[in-house]
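A protein record pairs a chain with a discrete description of its three-dimensional fold. The shape at a given residue is found from the number at the same position. Here is what such a record looks like in full:
>
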Amino acid sequence: MTTLHLAEAPAAPALTRSFHTIGRQALELLYQHRVLSTQQLHVLLTMPAKRAARPHYLLKQLAELHKAGLVSRVRALGGSAGPNRVRTQPFLWFLTEAGAESVEEAGELPIRPYRVTPESVAGARQAHTLAVNDVGVTFVEHARRLGHECGPLDWTPEVANRIRDGQRRFEDDHVISDSVLNYVHVENGRRTMLSFFIELDRATMTSARLAAKLHAYGRLYEYVPQSSDRARRLPNATRPAWMNHYPIFPRVLVVLDAAAPKEGEPDRRPHRLAARTEDLYTRTAADVRLGRLREDIAIGVTTLQQLQQHGPCAPIFTPLLRGTPSARPALTDLYLSTK
């Protein structure tokens, strides 16, 4: 990636000082979430009571950021066929190198070394990235409506946690969550802090691979780092590594989605995703490690459509590791409790 030098572009910090609050907030959101559509930014940055049908003010701010060289944009993939297909697709926004540096110099967010490029935005994972952010946006919307707490920066994409010692491929030594989301449930003055590992599945991998990903969370729960030098082993080396990052083990939420049918084709997504839920239930029920940890780990499955329509506090999650195939537990909310 080519770095923009001071001789080629104005210094980013000086530019950001001239922007309004919504512009600075947009930079922060794009830094943390990498890629967001105009509509996703509109929802995250505007309260419902003040939200117009068309985000004129936001678009003006984004245009200023774009002119200053801090953000870039591409058209989303997909859409109906035709000569005007590209023009009708929404813009997807992401930071330039200068934009990322301006956020890092402000020092408000944890540094993330990942840099977004036009090629990565336009790549095969575009729909997956947007769907992961749709999950976060949905939690934010329902938290606002219910008086709970979940802000635009309360989820972090692609969080890796080590699950075994060694120096193999990074993917073999770690479980990489699509995001980790924090949520505060507020009821009668009582605050309950919840954390979630979010797994977004667009039915592009086999159910066996998805079940293997859930198995990896069992490994994470039990993983205790070991030092080859017993004399130098730290006192906390006898406890699982996840305790260094989370006060309690986060619940695992699997959110299923699928590509929309082509024009003229019937929508088979509900049947397809219901079958995928059944497959996951069967496979996790047969997982010896997860079976041993069924009282320690909570895993729930829903669809993005249900999440968006009803919200995470509605009974929309199928709890895995609970009940039996012949005596299934009832649907539950984000607590994933069946008691």
Q: What stands out?
A: Residues 1-17, 80-85 have pLDDT under 50 and may be disordered. The first helix runs from residue 12 to 17. Strands lie at 36-37, 71-75, 91-95, 155-162, 174-187, 190-201, 251-256, 299-303, 318-320. The first strand starts at residue 36 and ends at 37.
